[in-house]
Amino acid sequence: MLTAWDSLSGAVVQAAGADAVLVGDSLGMVALGHTTTLPVTLDQMLHHTQAVARGFSSPASEHPLLISDLPFLSYQCGEDLAVAAAGRLLKESPAAAVKLEGAEPEVVDVINRLVRMGIPVMGHLGLTPQSVHQMGYRRQAVDAVSQERLQAQAAILERSGCFAMVLEHVPAELAGRVRRSLAIPVIGIGAGDDCDGQVRVTADLLGLTPRQPPFSPALVNGRQLFTDALHSWVSGINSPSNSPSP
Ligand code: KIV
């Protein structure tokens, strides 16, 4: 699973062969210049999810699974609001599922309700960036008590009807244990190899994000690559000896 945030990145991740494309609220940092995911609105998620889908080239039946994040406070303020928010993502874009963070009792009630309403839900445990002001961006579940809690929460998410879950920035050994205890797929990021699948923020892999997470190294230095290419074009245009190329 790879993230996308506009039609260009949607086209690229589809062409790369991703099974699933997540329009994550990380677009707040990747595309909107925020330092956290908290300011991202439902309207922005919808706008970017529609754009990503427009980047897909094949017939809709061959598109990767498109999942859209429910942004901060679009699902924590009551079940009715959560159904309305998730419903908008599925009605007004081709997203086929939503992702939300955490497993507090209120969130579990929301998941139960969404699933009963026919809305597929992906869970997200471990480092949950919408709680950055409580947990920071630190690795989660490093002690025995919090590992037990996370394992219990994962079981609750499965029982609530989540069709899959993301496990972010937790010890690899714990991720493996969670995976083996569940029937639904566990998609890891910074959670080691013993997961059913992996997800990455595409801009991190391409070396485009200003702050590279320690658990998601870049494959290329995209910022440098693009800057050098454009700098060489700009220098050529500005050079008196060169006539501008088209
Ligand atoms: O918002 C996002 O991109 C995510 C991934 C890190 C899983 O939630």
Explain what the structure shows.
The structure is a single chain. With about 250 residues, this protein is an alpha/beta fold. It is about 45% helix and about 15% strand. The chain contains ten helices and eight strands. It has helices at about 5-15, 25-30, 40-55, 80-90, 105-115, 130-135, 145-160, 170-180, 200-205, 220-240; strands spanning about 1-5, 20-25, 65-70, 95-100, 120-125, 165-170, 185-190, 195-200. An eight-stranded parallel beta sheet has the order 1-2-3-4-5-6-7-8. Helix 1 (about 5-15) crosses helix 3 (about 40-55), helix 3 (about 40-55) packs parallel to helix 4 and helix 4 crosses helix 5. The longest helix has 17 residues, at about 145-160. The mean pLDDT is about 95. Bound molecules: 3-methyl-2-oxobutanoic acid. 3-methyl-2-oxobutanoic acid binds near residues 3, 26, 69 and 166.
Number of strand segments: 8
Principal-axes geometry comes out as: globular
Question: Uncertain regions: pLDDT < 50 for 5+ in a row?
Answer: none
Q: Please bin the fraction of helical residues.
A: 40-55%
List the quaternary state of the chains. Answer: single chain
Give a brief outline of the structure.
The protein has 246 residues and is α/β, with parallel strands linked by helices. The chain has helices spanning 7-15, 27-30, 42-55, 79-92, 105-116, 132-135, 144-160, 172-181, 202-205, 222-238; strands at residues 2-3, 20-23, 65-69, 97-99, 121-126, 164-168, 186-189, 197-198. The structure holds 3-methyl-2-oxobutanoic acid.
